[in-house]
Design a protein that fits this description.
This protein is α/β, with parallel strands linked by helices. Helix content is 56%, strand content 10%. The chain is built from 29 helices and ten strands. Strand 3 and strand 4 (82-89) form a beta hairpin.
Length: 632
């Protein structure tokens, strides 16, 4: 088995030779390969500018060398005619270096005539410098060029994977190859690529532009360049570890990235899985990519980040893992419990991830109430309910009680307990629904739901003291999470009292302040400003309605608003504000109205602080009946 570590400079790194099965020596058919299991290109100008600044500082200080870090390579022979060196660790640095070399070559070519005209150095001397020291930049990035029907095409020393390939190659070609005798402007490429949405492609452009800018600002002197380019290629060093055994390469990779240093825990989970398969690595990598694809929107942006998904996956089984311990837990515990030690089991697990991630995003987009309640950890409960996903009514029975927890905990100051309590509830579901099959599904759901409700009620009993008082005195902001949560509460109250249904995700549904948000000059002059602002934002002063009616009401005094409400005759929840004797619809709403028990103090169309207090208490009573007592 081949295994050795050496210190290589950039020149050597991009002209590496290796020995496999007794074969040795440099061949222009040897290329670096970014394997299919590697992540996308994530470096930006932040990292590339720091690299170039550090190198330039070392150069100016005449440092004998500058260490850039380590790289792990897996050398393998595909055939006598084709050799690859897989970059197992260090792909970000390697790609960035190749971009820098290509952009530097482009910079030198575009400024050659300027150097000839302004440096005072004979043109023949400058040509010699270009030939002896600068032309090498291109040969480090490109194996060879071929003339095709559509023009010259480069064949690269770096064979990128599907996350990076086409855009990277087009960009490097644009930097290296002249067009109509002239070298291309990077600004023009940037302009033509303004519509790029893919993160990797944006990062390539970002690194390219910042590198060109760095060279323009710091290396506009041919005498400096004559010394800097050799320094860059010969004095920048990397500890390079080469093996021809992939498992050994992965072991080194994990050691260098212990506990996620340099890589995120989900990247390490991927490497763990790929490392443990024995054949057909690409199939497993494709399954992983399909899992990731399920977590993205149509523009490639993550709806749920992979690390957050694993947090929810573990939480769905009743386990809370700190972010910095995710890979340790997966490696030491989860993989053991799930027997991730064979190709078939790993394949089954990746297929499970694919299914669960698709279901997770679908439920995240469809569960409007959970979204508006801003209880992210609730989606872990939905993952735990995956075994009964086809029984939507049963799933919703469980979900309704997550809404109870969200309302009681959030409005009563117990948000810090949400994740811990949900983990215990999820474990009840996970354990109760394990081993489910068509013959026992109804019985298992019934038993699990009974245990689940018992624990939910216990949690809420322990957390609900003072709930009514908190709701009565709560300050309701104009926007933000709390505003959205109040919109949810008002929509449920309107439905329970009169059957009105409001789409709280729609901009067509709004919250109306009966005592206007902005104090009118024509009314409420007797109320001190400070007190006005407090009562104006109490829940008893709020109702929910369609945008059209809200616009009709405007910022008028309450008496004027009530005239419009009387004319429009909306749902019971709003109409009862001007007529508490209004009966509205018949049961099942009647029982909720009894609990609401709202009676106006005055029969006149008057809206004052006393009426706001009165209605706040009525809303708090009904809210307790629904969310604390569980009549949801």
């Amino acid at each position: 088995m081949l295994f050795h570590s050496n210190i290589y400079n950039i020149d050597k790194l991009f002209n590496i030779s290796f020995e496999v099965d007794g074969s040795s020596g440099l061949s222009n058919k040897e290329v670096y390969n970014i394997p299919f299991y590697q992540r996308e290109y994530v470096w930006t100008s932040i990292q590339s500018e720091k690299l170039l600044t550090d190198v330039f500082t070392a150069f100016n200080n005449r440092a004998p060398q500058y260490f850039l870090g380590g790289i792990v390579l897996n050398a393998m022979t595909i055939s006598d005619e084709q050799k690859f060196i897989d970059i197992v660790d260090g792909q970000q640095r390697t790609i960035t270096l190749s971009i820098i070399l290509a952009v530097l070559y482009n910079f030198l070519q575009k400024n050659k005539q300027l150097f000839i005209e302004t440096s005072g150095i004979p043109e023949s001397n400058i040509n010699a410098v270009y030939s002896d020291k600068f032309e090498k930049l291109k040969t480090l990035v490109v194996k060879h060029e071929s003339t095709l029907d559509e023009g010259t095409k480069s064949f690269f020393k770096l064979n990128t994977n599907k996350h990076i390939c086409e855009f990277y190659e087009n960009f490097i070609n644009y930097m290296l190859l002249p067009s109509s005798g002239n070298y291309n402007n990077i600004e023009e490429y940037t302009s033509s690529a303004n519509g790029v949405d893919i993160k990797t492609d944006k990062n390539i452009i970002d690194v390219g532009i910042s590198s060109y800018k760095f060279f323009s600002e710091n290396l506009n002197n041919i005498r400096v360049l004559e010394k800097f380019v050799p320094y860059l290629l010969e004095k920048i060093l990397l500890v390079t570890t080469i093996t021809d055994d992939l498992k050994t390469a992965f072991q080194i990779f994990e050691t260098l990235n212990d506990r996620g240093i340099g890589l995120s825990p989900d990247d390490l989970i991927k490497s763990f899985l790929i490392k443990n398969v024995t054949v057909n690595y690409e199939k497993y990598s494709d399954l992983w990519d399909e899992f990731l694809e399920n977590l993205r929107d149509e523009k490639g942006k993550f709806i749920t980040k992979p690390l957050d998904f694993f947090d929810q996956l573990f939480l769905s089984e009743g386990t809370i893992i700190p972010e910095d311990k995710v890979f340790d837990y997966f490696n030491e515990t989860y993989s053991q419990e799930n027997n991730l030690d064979s190709d078939s089991n790993i394949e089954d697990f990746l297929k499970k991830l694919k299914k669960l991630s698709k279901y997770h995003i679908e439920t995240k987009q469809n569960q409007v109430n959970l979204d508006k309640l801003n209880i992210d950890n609730s989606y872990a409960t939905l993952i735990s309910l995956y075994p009964i996903k086809d029984k939507s009514e049963q799933v919703q029975k469980f979900v309704k009680h997550i809404e109870r927890i969200a309302v009681v905990y959030f409005f009563n100051g117990h948000t810090k307990n949400v994740k811990n309590d949900l983990s215990k509830l999820n474990k009840i579901i996970h354990d109760g629904l394990s081993g489910i099959n068509p013959n026992n599904i109804d019985k298992k759901i019934r038993i699990t739901y009974k245990q689940y409700i018992k624990q939910v009620n216990k949690f809420i009993k322990d957390r609900s003291e003072g709930f009514e008082d908190s709701l009565i005195k709560m300050y309701i902001p104009k926007s933000g999470k709390r505003y959205t949560q109040i919109k949810y509460i008002l929509s449920v109250l309107a439905y329970k009292l009169g059957g009105a249904q409001f789409n709280i995700s729609s901009g067509e549904t709004t919250i109306e302040h009966l005592m206007p948000q902005d104090k009118p000059n024509s009314c409420y002059n007797h109320v001190p400003d400070e007190k006005y602002q407090v009562y104006n934002k109490r829940i008893g002063n709020l109702t929910i309605m369609n945008k059209d009616l809200n616009q009709l009401l405007g910022n008028d005094c309450s008496e004027e608003k009530f005239k419009v409400i009387e004319e429009q005759h909306p749902d019971y929840f709003t109409y009862s504000i001007i007529d508490s004797n209004y009966t509205g619809n018949t049961p099942p709403y009647g029982l909720y109205k009894e609990k609401y028990n709202y009676n106006k103090i005055s029969n006149d169309k008057i809206w004052n602080l006393e009426e706001i207090d009165n209605r706040s208490h009525a809303i708090a009573r009904l809210s307790t009946y629904i969310w604390v007592e569980g009549h949801i």
